[in-house]
Amino acid sequence: MNDEELMQQALLVARKALASDDVPVGAIIVNKMGEIIAVGHNERELHKDPTAHAEIVALRRATELNKSWRLEDHTLVVTLEPCAMCAGAIAQSRISTLVFGAWDEKAGAVGSVWDLLRDPRSLYKVEVRSGVRATECAQLLKDFIQGVRTKD
To answer: Which residues does UniProt call coiled coil (predicted)?
Structure first.
């Protein structure tokens, strides 16, 4: 699958977060053969866990399956630009490639506010491809936020 098709899969995963009133962010991890080995969506509200971002959930599942914390030659596809916590976890896991959709102008750590993964001081470099299906990814978040405001 190409980046567009992978992001479509991540969007499907993101929508699952809506069942627990979590922000609809989805992540998938693909191995070097192009197989989806793990998925995750935001579960912060579901588990009352501030670290249960989509990326972290997917990384935990992938490392469990891999029986190793090292995910070299894997790609992480996520619907929203990772925050600082998630960018750090991506670097620590040795993910080779990150593909993301919408930019996060308030908390993004892969180009918007900070750029932790491509900082020249970073110990581990990650290839980053951004803006994949960005409009669709951003719209899903906007619809969620407007729905929350309507409830209040």
So the answer is: none
Number of compact structural domains in the chain:
1
Q: Is residue 77 within 8 Å of residue 28, measured between CB atoms?
A: yes
**Would you say the C-alpha torsion 48, 148, 11, 71 has a positive or negative sign?**
negative
**H-run or E-run covering 101:** strand 97-102
Q: Which amino acid is at 70?
A: R
Q: Which of 43, 45, 55, 136 is catalytic?
A: 55
Range of the domain at 7: 1-148
> Could you give the CA distance from residue 22 to residue 51 in angstroms, rounded to a whole number?
13
Is 43 known to be catalytic? no
What is the domain-level CATH number for residue 15? 3.40.140.10
Residue 138: what are its φ and ψ, rounded to 5°?
Answer: -65, -40
Ramachandran region, residue 48 (left: φ > 0; alpha: ψ -120 to 50; beta: rest): left
**Residue whose C-alpha is closest to residue 40's, from 27, 24, 23, 30:** 27
Q: What is the pTM of this model?
A: 0.94
Segment 47-94, tens digit of pLDDT: 999 999 999 999 999 999 999 999 999 999 999 999 999 999 999 999
